[in-house]
Design a protein that fits this description.
about 230 residues; binds cytidine-5'-triphosphate; 14 strands; eight-stranded mixed sheet; two-stranded antiparallel sheet; Rossmann fold; alpha/beta; binds calcium ion
Length: about 230
């Protein structure tokens, strides 16, 4: 738990953070989801609150509990997450650390699907979920001044992250290599690249908590700079 700095550099700022996976129902007992413990998003929300920000933490069903000192909004699906994000605006900055399921089952069954005895599995039809980061990044009015996305990649990390920065109209992308051999997924450390329109910073491997603190400090600097401009 971070000690809140009552007079910290983010005092008076509202920051929105998404975190965790989303769960997309197949039927009442089954769902599809991304792998996400919620550890990095939770650490970021805690670090922002520690700098004095008022934080709205919109979280899917994560493994780690939400931090103290933030307003927690719990959701299950991507569509619920988008609605919660829109309801939480306006914000000075928004950090999209959630691992949102790209697809949902087009029409989830309202009763449990049963094996029919033929040995033929069901065929699921998928629909694409809304892109929450791209929706907020592209807002013409009410866009947070600083919009930060994540890109968890297994290949061509910087190229994929830069493409997302442009496509989703965000200001920064925190990119990382999540190939299983890195041990980052589900672990306590992270090695990230901060991708901005004007260049890429490679941060050394450090604890997720330190990544969160460094990112929160950068956010505070960026908002202070723009406020004074
Ligand atoms: N994101 C989001 N809503 C979605 C999908 C992604 O807000 N429906 C956000 C994530 O929270 C993250 C960023 O977009 O900040 C990048 O997510 P990622 O899954 O890497 O991007 P996609 O556009 O879904 O690309 P990919 O096909 O590589 O999964
Ligand atoms: Ca995705």
């Amino acid at each position: 738990v971070e000690a809140a700095l009552v007079d910290g550099p983010l005092k008076g700022r509202h920051v929105l953070v998404t975190s965790g996976p989303t769960h997309e129902p197949i039927d009442p007992v089954r769902y599809i989801a991304n792998r996400s413990s919620g550890a990095q998003g939770t650490a970021i929300a805690a670090a922002l609150a520690g700098l004095g920000a008022s934080v709205t933490f919109v979280t899917g069903p994560a493994e780690v509990p939400p931090p103290d000192g933030v307003t927690v909004v719990r959701v299950d699906t991507a569509r619920e997450m988008l609605a919660a994000v829109e309801a939480a605006l306006p914000a000075d900055a928004a950090v999209f650390a959630a691992a949102v399921a790209d697809w949902r089952v087009a029409s989830a069954a309202s009763s449990k699907m049963k094996k029919d005895g033929t040995g033929n599995p069901p065929v699921l039809e998928f629909a694409e979920n809304p892109d929450i980061l791209a929706t907020v990044g592209g807002m013409e009015t009410g866009r947070p001044r600083l919009v930060v996305g994540f890109a968890a990649e297994t290949d061509d990390v910087i190229a994929n992250a830069s493409a997302k920065l442009t496509r989703k109209r965000c200001d920064w992308i925190v990119a990382n290599d999540v190939r299983p051999e890195t041990g980052i997924m589900g672990g306590s450390e992270n090695a990230v690249h901060l991708v901005r329109a004007d260049g890429v910073e490679d941060w050394p491997r450090m604890s997720k908590r330190d990544v969160a603190r460094k990112l929160a400090a950068r956010i505070a600097e960026a908002l202070a700079g723009e406020a004074g401009a």
